[in-house]
Amino acid sequence: MKIIKNQPLMIGFILLYVLPPLGMAWLAALGVMEWTDMIKKRRSLPRDSISILFMLMALASVGAALINFQIIYLLSTLMILAYMGVYLYYLHHHEFLQIRQYVWITIFGGGYLYLSDKLFHFFSSHSLLGQGVSLMTGHLLLGFTKHNRLYGSAYNPNYACYLLILALAFLLVELLRAIRRKNYKMGAFCLALLPIIGLAIYDTGSRAGFIIMLLLQLLFLAKLDKRLFFAVAGVIALLSPFIFKFMPRSDNTSSSLGDRMSIWKNSIRIFFEQPLFGTTPVGFSSQYFKLTGHTVSHAHDLFLSIFDSSGVVVGLFFIAIMLFSGYSLFQCLRSDKKNRYSVNLFLFSLPTIIAYGIMDFTLSSPQVLLIVLALVAYWIRYTSQMRVFTNFRGFHRKFTTIRYSGGQIDQKEQKREAGLIRSLPDHSQGPYASEKERF
């Protein structure tokens, strides 16, 4: 009982990989608790961009239900509010899961996806009992008919691939940290895990995952040694025809791209039919079937899925969030020199959401979305803390400039300014406590 009370998020994330339905239910229960607590204490809703996005999506789903006279669309409203509750729990209770705990759960989760896929193949899932076990362990293949691609406990090779991409991004950041700090044991451990994660990504058969894996490794080399980066990038450019042939399922790339483009064109048509509120996530499949006679669960593109399911207002707001987050990340790279671990973590991981989302909508998986929402919550907290510090520093320097008539700030004032970073919640305790060193 003590570990449940002290580590509810850690338990939830471990269950997401080992017993996904239980993990989803566990985190959903935490979200309900968060909503209940907010209502009882009459706490106002946060005003961060992600919370506003959820509220706009919920309103759009209600609007779609009213316009189309489809009560079933309100299931999307409940689903969106459930996700928002979990996100708010992440945001308000970060002390239950430090960021490096989250990072390593994700890394080991990637390893588990690979090992469990090999293990589960020894057990039959043809019987009713076998299918029940497969459903609980995440090894029930959904959306595919062929079983020759790795999917582990993620139900789908594309979902598994994105979780592995996230694990690779975190692992490369940990390796970079170990090299900079000359922690050879940790470096060796990370190097031992790299081939496992890389092979798992390849075995999912995802072409997008394969390309993103190469880009992440190039980014790692760019952060480690610029000369080595340019040398390896040149070799990759020269060997690109061979690399293309080595890419998973390269022989049917053209046909797959044609199918995907057909889905995108039809998704755009659906958007123009219902541009204001969208179809809701629940209603997209039926609208697609009415248009084409084929069943497709989502638009297979992050941006198209947002526009299709929630309409133009939500879609434009989502794009604004992406642009502002990119600008904020660039600013953090320039200004936050003391916390390279945190900045590198977001630099390696956040762009993968967009990069993979261009070719597929893996956030349609509750398992994937619940893991990604935690990363987004850490990012929102980090940027809010950086804004507090930046605003304080600007005000403080103006004040000291007036006080000392343009003279330099003395050492006492500099120490006071530096102390503010240590006083921020995540610097004084938790995920950034041991990561302030520059590397």
UniProtKB/TrEMBL annotation:
The chain crosses the membrane at residues 9-29, 49-67, 72-90, 96-115, 127-145, 157-176, 188-216, 228-247, 309-329, 341-359, 365-383. Its main location: membrane. Residues 418-439 are annotated as: Disordered. It holds the Pfam family Wzy_C. Residues 196-319 form the O-antigen ligase-related domain. One of its GO terms (cellular component) is membrane. It is found in: Membrane. This is Membrane protein.
